[in-house]
Amino acid sequence: MNPLLAKLQPYPFEKLRALVQDITPAAGFKPISFGIGEPKHPTPLFIKEALSDALGGLSNYPATQGTEALRQAIANWLEKRYRLPNVNPATEVLPVNGSREALFSFAQAVVDASRPGALVLCPNPFYQIYEGAALLAGATPYFANSDPARNFAPDYDAVPAEIWQQVQLLFVCSPGNPTGAVLGLDDWRKLFALSDQYGFTIASDECYSEIYFDEERPPLGGLEAAHQLGRNFDRLVVFSSLSKRSNVPGMRSGFVAGDAALLKQFLLYRTYHGCAMSPAIQAASVAAWSDEAHVRLNRSKYVRKFQTIAPLLGEVLDVAMPDAGFYLWARVDRRTGLSDTEFTRRLLADYNVTVLPGSFLGRESQGTNPAKNFVRIALVAEVDECTEGAQRIVQCCRSL
C-alpha cells in the first residue's frame, strides 16, 4: 500500500461518531443534526426534470472535458456573477464531479514532490480534503491560523518568508468552511503578490459563494479579484459547485476555472484519472447554472434562518454572523465552562442535537489549535427545524 496513507487522520465525522458512540440521547426529542454541511432544502423540480429528460445520454461515453453546452453555461455564469469581460469556455473552464474530487486531484497534478520540502499552505481550521490532498501528493501541509479580529479569516501575515519559499500550492476557502470568512480585495492583492514572488499556484475553493445575506454585496471571488486588480488568471484557479447553490449535493457537479495552461495539464491528468461527468448530470447542470431564480429563493431561506438563530444563540454562546456560508462558528467554553467535545456530548445526550467540535476541523499550528473550543453549527435544514434545534441549544446552555 502507499505508505502516505498512514499519514491521513480519520475524517471529522468518523471522530464525531467515536466521540458519541456511548451516548444514548434523551428520550422525547427527535434528532436534529447541525453536524454535517449537507443542504436539506428541496432540489428544484426543473433540475430533476432536466436530469430525467437526458437519461438517453447514458448510452454514450462522456468526454472528460464535458460538453460545449455545459462549459458555455459555466462561462456565462462566471461572466455575469463576477462581472468578467470574457471567460473562454474551451480553455478556461473544466467541469468536475463536485469540488471535493477536483480539489484533491488538482493537488496531485500540481505538486512536484521531487522538490525538497514541498509545502501546501492551508487555512486553519479548514476543509479536510486540503490536508489529505497535500499528504498524498507527497507534500507537507502548513497551516495559516484564523484571526478572530478579522472574523476568522486566515492570518497570512504570520506566515514566515522561509515558509512561502517552499509553498507550491495555496488552498484558499472563501467563503470559509467552517468560519464563513470572505477574503477582501486587499487580501487577494497580498496573495497575488506572494504568488508572483514565490511562484506558487492558488486554488480557491468557492463552493459557498452563493450563500450570502445581502443581495447587493455578493462575496468577492478570486477571478473577480484578479480582474479588478488588472491581472490575468496566471497561477490561479477557482473551484465551485452546484451542491450548496442549487441543493443538489448528490449530483456531484462543479467546475474548475482560471489559468488555461494549468487547466490544460489538469485535463490531461483527468483523462487518465477516469472522472468524466455523466451526460445526464451535464444536462441537468446546464439547466442549474442557467437559472438564478431558484438560487435567490434558496438564499432567502438562509437569510431568514440566520436573522432568527444568530441572535438567539448569541444570548448563550460567543457567536457572530459569518460573512457568508451556512455555518455558525460558535465558541462554547467561555460561557458554558465546557470544551467543544464536552459540549457536543452534553448537547446530544440531553437534547438530541448534534454539532461538530471545532477542534476536529483544525490542527495544532504555531503552538495552538485555533479551532479548539468552537463548534460548527450547520444551518442546513428548513427554518422550523433549525429554530427548534437552536432553542434546545439555548436550553442546554442555560441548564449548565
Mean pLDDT: 97
Span between N and C termini?
Answer: 48 Å
Instruction: Choose one word for the global shape.
Output: globular
CATH C-level label of the largest domain: Alpha Beta
Read across the widest sheet, the strand sequence of neighbours is: 2-9-8-7-6-3-4-5
Helix/strand structural class: alpha/beta
Q: List how many beta strands DSSP finds.
A: 13
Q: Give the name of the CATH architecture of the largest domain.
A: 3-Layer(aba) Sandwich
Provide the low-confidence segments as ranges.
Answer: none
Keywords: Aminotransferase, Transferase
Protein name: Succinyldiaminopimelate transaminase
GO molecular function: pyridoxal phosphate binding; succinyldiaminopimelate transaminase activity
Pfam families: Aminotran_1_2 (PF00155)
Task: Write a concise keyword list for the protein shown above.
400 residues; alpha/beta; 2 domains; 41% helix; globular
What does this structure look like?
The protein is α/β, with parallel strands linked by helices and about 400 residues long. About 40% of the residues lie in helices and about 15% in strands. It has two domains: about 10-40 and about 295-400, Aspartate Aminotransferase, domain 1 (Alpha-Beta Complex), CATH 3.90.1150; about 45-290, Aspartate Aminotransferase, domain 2 (3-Layer(aba) Sandwich), CATH 3.40.640. The protein is built from 15 helices and 13 strands. Strands 2-9-8-7-6-3-4-5 form an eight-stranded mixed beta sheet, sandwiched between helices.
